[in-house]
Amino acid sequence: MLTNSQTVDRPPSLPAAPAAIFAILGLVDIGLLGVIGSSIAPPLPVSIFVALLGLVTLLALVPARRHSRPALITAVAARVVSAVLALAAFFADAPAWVMTVEGLVIVATIVAIVLLRRPPRPQTA
To answer: Which of 27, 61, 87, 90, by CA, is between 20 and 30 Å from 101?
Structure first.
């Protein structure tokens, strides 16, 4: 039983800014399904895998915002894997706009992770 003098360490929650960035990136990953069948589409398994990473990201965001450490780890891992896969655009002779989008995915992922690492601001009364 806990008394008032004891504190419970809660796992960190996902702050709003990284959560919003992760949500947008998850939607971008799912949007990749829209290029299936076009001349610029990555191989079908890659497109499906990246879309699944986007879905996993979106599904993990709500529990991560509610202090679920496994959900937070899942969201971050999905974003890191997606960013690593985005590097392929720079080696696969992709169109300039695809490289621009993938570059933004990589940069936004790094920004969100840096924001996650910042200590939370103390709340005032």
So the answer is: 61
- Quick one: DSSP state of residue 3? -
Q: What number is the average pLDDT over the span 16-27?
A: 95
Give, in degrees to the nearest 5, the angle at Cα 70 between 66 and 75: 80
Tally the residues of the chain: 125
For 34-61, how does the pLDDT look when each residue is reduced to its tens digit (9 = 90+)? Answer: 888 888 888 889 899 999 999 999 999 9
DSSP 7-50: --PPPPP--HHHHHHHHHHHHHHHHGGGGTTSTTPPPHHHHHHH
What is the rounded CA–CA span in Å between residue 60 and residue 72? 7
CA distance 62 to 55: 12
